[in-house]
Amino acid sequence: MDNLHRPRFAFKSVVDSSASFSSTVEAREGFGPRNIALWSAWTTWFLNSETPTEVELSIVFPSSRAVQSFAFYGHNALGVIAVDVLIGATYVEVATTTVAERNGKVIYLIAPMVYNTTSIRLRFASINYLTVFYAGVDLVTPVGCEVGWQDPSLGQRAVVSHEVSRRGVWLGASAERWISEHELKLRYMDPEWVYDYWVEFVEVCSTQPFFLHWNAQDWPQSAIFCYDTLFGRTPYHTTLDVEINMLFTGDFGAIAHFDPPPHIEPEPSSTEGMFLQTGSLALVGTSINDTVVLQTEE
């Protein structure tokens, strides 16, 4: 493929409400695999397993669908992930990767060609939840990013929560998640391409998230899940070229962004030095496992 160095947008997924899903491991009640088709960060497929496990998920379509790229967001996968498509009566592996760390980063796989299929099979060596899965044919721009574009992996910034007591004492801070904020500007775009493809992307992704891989050739680990998109002006420079502009937030999909499964208790967190005041009583402690002493504040 000669277009891997150009931005590719994954937004028209063939995995939708018309598909049927079956898994080799049962899901928890209310957390079935259909959730991965909703483009939502708060509806998740959770396996009915206390720990990550090996699983296969089959997705069947009512008619043939074209696919080439596959993206995963909000997961705790480790080890081999493989994507098979049904060709005739046989599943054929078309994309695979090995996840070395259980860090939850976005996975974006690109097959060498477009396949028409009625079923996709996902094989995970170790996982127990997945939030969004995309399969389809990407929108690839005719030009690459210009000088000044910031690679998402270098632009990650922490969304920090600061804890402050009622008396104004700083108690500490924690990073809730890591995101990157971007401005993408592409110039010298063919007007015909803009009308044929970009208009639809603007209509859909003004409200729906999408995946972006800006340069899969040179920066293969820089795919992100994008949301909070604001599309700017699309001015003509001449009668032969158009400029497109957009602002958006990108999320690498760090595992810390997701709450633990409903029936798994979170690990105790330190609250060393915490002082909570309620009326005339003060709560003093060093950890949620420590003895709590109530004292009257004078």
Please characterize this protein's 3D structure.
The protein is mainly β. It folds into 3 domains: 8-139, Jelly Rolls (Sandwich), CATH 2.60.120.260; 157-257, no CATH class; 269-298, no CATH class. 5% of the residues lie in helices and 52% in strands. The chain has 1 helix and 18 strands. The protein has one helix at residues 191-205; strands at residues 8-10, 20-23, 45-46, 53-75, 79-87, 90-99, 107-127, 129-136, 139-140, 157-164, 170-189, 210-213, 224-231, 236-238, 241-251, 270-278, 281-287, 293-296. The strands form 3 sheets. Strands 1, 9, 10, 11, 12, 13, 14 and 15 form an 8-stranded antiparallel sheet that branches. Strands 2, 3, 4, 5, 6, 7 and 8 form a 7-stranded antiparallel sheet that branches. Strand 5 and strand 6 form a beta hairpin. The radius of gyration is 23 Å and the shape is globular. Mean pLDDT is 85; it is low at 256-298.
Give a nutshell description of this structure.
By secondary structure, this protein is mainly beta.
Helix fraction, binned, reads under 10%
CATH topology name of the largest domain: Jelly Rolls
Number of helices: 1
Radius of gyration: 23 Å
CATH homolog superfamily of the largest domain: Galactose-binding domain-like
The biggest beta sheet is recorded as: 8 strands, antiparallel
State the shape: globular
Write down the CATH class of the largest domain.
Mainly Beta
The mean pLDDT is: 85
Runs in which pLDDT lies below 50 for 5 or more consecutive residues are 256-298
Please write out the topology.
Layout: E1 8-10, E2 20-23, E3 45-46, E4 53-75, E5 79-87, E6 90-99, E7 107-127, E8 129-136, E9 139-140, E10 157-164, E11 170-189, H1 191-205, E12 210-213, E13 224-231, E14 236-238, E15 241-251, E16 270-278, E17 281-287, E18 293-296
Antiparallel strand pairs: 1-9, 1-12, 2-4, 3-8, 4-7, 4-8, 5-6, 5-7, 10-11, 11-15, 12-13, 13-15, 14-15, 16-17, 17-18
